[in-house]
Amino acid sequence: MLDIAAAESRTADLVAAATRSGADAADALYVGDAATQVSVRLGELEDVGRSEGEEIGLRVFVGRRSATVSSSDLSADALAALVERAVAMAREAPEDPYAGLAPEDRLLRDEPPAIDADDGGDPAPAALRERALAAEEAARAVAGVTNSEGGGASANRVTIALATSAGFARGYRTTGYGCSASVIAGEGGAMQRDYAFHSARYLEDLEASDAIGRRAGERAVARLGPRKLESGSMPVVYDPRVSASMVGHLLGAINGAGIARRTSFLLGKLGERVFAPGITIVDDPLRLRGLRSKPFDGEGLPTARRELVQDGVLTTWLMDSASARQLGLEPTGHAARGTGGAPGASGSNTYLAAGTLSRDDLIADIKLGVYVTELIGQGVNGITGDYSRGASGFVIRDGRIAEAVAEITVAGNLTDMFLHMTPASDLEFRHAVDAPTLRIDGMAIAGA
User: Fold this and answer.
1) pLDDT, tens digit, 9 for 90 and up, residues 19-42
2) DSSP assignment of 23-83, as one string?
3) Where is the Metalloprotease TldD/E C-terminal domain (predicted)?
């Protein structure tokens, strides 16, 4: 894997070779990664894996025609062949009136902002093994846990560099660490499984293994003896484990490519209220140590914190340069890509801001409702907003979380759900997309 300076140089050289070979414009992306994973089960080492790889992707433009070619062979001969093949393919590609690099005057020219995403660490497999064992041991120690699917720990390092024929050449490096446990409670047909995990950029920020394991065990035991629930309309409260999925549905609906294709249920809603008053949703690619922090986007544009939703009002689409041209707007710095294709658009560290009520206060007036801790299936229609997903969790009775419930379906329409959403005050930054506990009134529940 190349260091940052070498990766910047390699991508810049590849772009220069492409323009010498007849490309009108070009960009190149390098991604190198190294990862170690350790898994254990029932107190014994089960697997140790180490992977290292690097790949470079070249995108070239001949007029409005473009092609992208990638290679994991970074030798001089392989890259020369890559350039020749990419230019030849571009000459035969169909014209796209929206194709092209990002606007040159929008590229990041200053020193990239610090995102503090690399702690320089490289823990040995033995240290990862101890973390995995500690997580599983703590989970198995919870009364009622009867079996284990295992514990795991991982560490990785990634180097990313991007260069364009407009003179941009920058790179950055990240590290990442994870720890998890998954266990089973109960016996026979009454068994229930659950898990817990945590990921962080810095090893020192990774949650203690025993806390992760204990949470996995307690979750599995709490799910024992699930009951059926009669169908009806009632409030649904989403645990933070699953509430971030609501933010994910928003990100999908405001993607510029979908808006340009007119395939989003939020089409025409820019500048309008789409969430309840007081709801704010933020995308922050510059959060220090954030899991998706990046100093520039997949086209070399600077990234910046944005309020996607402000007091319930939708303020922007997420756009790369191509979708922005199609919509007659400016790119928003949300371009994301791999080495094998053109950029798309996506969020980074995105979160729904906390409300003012504690979780207990949020559910205190609910006579009968559902507290959802797991969602099943992909029953969301991005064009109409229709929402129907399998779920499990707990019944809410008289303002308190009561018995476990399973095999239910929660349904509604995202347009209405967004407008009737109330957040609790328990937001934590644990994932790339986060949300506090969320309450949505008037959901349809299909149970027994």
Assistant:
1) 999 999 999 999 999 999 999 999
2) -SEEEEEEEEEEEEEEEEETTEEEEEEEEEEEEEEEEEEETTEEEEEEES--SHHHHHHHH
3) 231-447
